[in-house]
Amino acid sequence: MFMIDYKQIDWWYWLATACLLTAGVAGHATGFVLAIGLSGIQLIHFTMREHSLSAFTVQVRFWFLILVLVAWPEPMQVVYWLPVAGTWARSIFGYCAMARLLSLMPWNRHVPFSFGFLVRTFFSRPVRGSIMQGLPPAPQMA
């Protein structure tokens, strides 16, 4: 199922970032620099929009920026394949592995951590908006 949401600014940010990172792994190192810059701009934009550093959308962008910065040194650039695959998955299918990973952090979840919760988090269908609203509820114990 495609989730191309061209009416949303965040979709355009992720698409542009995916293109820049793809250019970087294709041998144009400027793509990495521009992707880092665009990620910083995106972080500032969403921090201002949400009026909070702890907003989930801001957390995703912060940790994405950290990931692309960690991958910047030459010996680490193989790591760029992770955000390349992730940003294309986010842009085309709406699946954001970074958001799903962050939703597992203690400060972002309201249910106890379990293997079932982990499986539901990573294998539930993509949703419009935040994975935080889209996670299926934990099964009820009788």
Can you walk me through this structure?
With 142 residues, this protein is mostly helical. The protein has one domain (9-134). It contains seven helices and no strands. It has helices at residues 9-25, 30-50, 56-70, 81-93, 97-103, 115-123, 131-134. Helix 1 (9-25) packs antiparallel against helix 4 (81-93) and helix 2 runs antiparallel to helix 3 (56-70). 25% of the residues are buried. The mean pLDDT is 91.
Question: Whole-number average pLDDT?
Answer: 91
* Secondary structure tally: strands: 0
Number of domains: 1
Based on the structure, what is the oligomeric state of the protein chains? Answer: single chain
- Calculate the terminal CA-CA distance, rounded to whole Å: 35 Å
| Residues in β-strands, percent | under 5%
Helix share, percent:
55-70%
Largest sheet: none
Total number of helical segments? 7
* Low-confidence spans: none
Question: What brief labels describe this structure?
Answer:
61% helix, 142 residues, mainly alpha, globular, 7 helices
Topology, pairings included?
Layout: H1 9-25, H2 30-50, H3 56-70, H4 81-93, H5 97-103, H6 115-123, H7 131-134
Helix pairs in contact: 1-2, 1-4, 2-3, 3-5
